[in-house]
Amino acid sequence: MLTLTGEKLHLRALEPEDLDFIYDIENDETIWEISATQTPYSRFLIKQYLENAHLDIYEAKQLRLVMMSHNKETIGLIDLFDFDPKNKRVGVGLLIAKSEFRHKGYGKEALELVCNYAFKHLQVHQLYANIDEENAASIKLFETAGFQQIGVKKDWNFVNGNFKNELLYQKLS
């Protein structure tokens, strides 16, 4: 079995055909809070991003993978970011873009696959995630996957005129 294939889905590299999907996600203002985005992205910029998506994680320090159901439906994205091979750590975040795939185990399986990939192939010692303290679904997902809350970043994000705390989760190999 391939490392990035599970019972419900597989993770694959970005393709030029993902332009519309990425465009819609990056320009969805309802999730800008999660991605720290403040301005819209043009199709041109996203096309350039996709053209460079082939860069090795050791060069780009990030890896974005598309979550695909075995029925070839695009579910969402899972990212490894701030890859630090010297200190053997990497951040992880995921987004299930289509509501019909939420709370059905796809996020859990994608997170398990990417954690196994990071530990085995990238040989990291730890993965970490930054989660808004009000995001109960993500907290449950990451805790179920073996992540532990190790800190609270007080008043970390300024959203809609209010400061919000961000929780720091970590999983060690």
Helices and strands in order:
Layout lengths: L8 E5 L5 H8 L5 H4 L7 H9 L5 H4 L2 E7 L4 E11 L4 E8 L9 H15 L5 E7 L3 H9 L3 E12 L2 E11 L1
Parallel strand pairs: 4-5
Antiparallel strand pairs: 1-2, 2-3, 3-4, 5-7, 6-7
Helix pairs in contact: 1-3
Overview of the molecule:
The chain is α+β, with helices and mostly antiparallel strands and 173 residues long. Helix content is 28%, strand content 35%. It has helices spanning 19-26, 32-35, 43-51, 57-60, 106-120, 136-144, and strands at 9-13, 63-69, 74-84, 89-96, 126-132, 148-159, 162-172. The protein has a seven-stranded mixed beta sheet with strand order 1-2-3-4-5-7-6. The chain is globular, with a radius of gyration of 16 Å. The two termini are 22 Å apart.
Low-confidence stretches: none
What Rg, in angstroms, do the CA atoms define? 16 Å
> Main sheet: which strands, in order across?
1-2-3-4-5-7-6
What's the architecture of the domain at 9-124 in CATH terms? 3-Layer(aba) Sandwich
Give a quick rundown of the structure:
By secondary structure, this protein is an alpha+beta fold. The protein has a domain at 9-124: Gcn5-related N-acetyltransferase (GNAT) (Aminopeptidase, 3-Layer(aba) Sandwich).
Protein traits:
seven-stranded mixed beta sheet; single chain; 6 helices
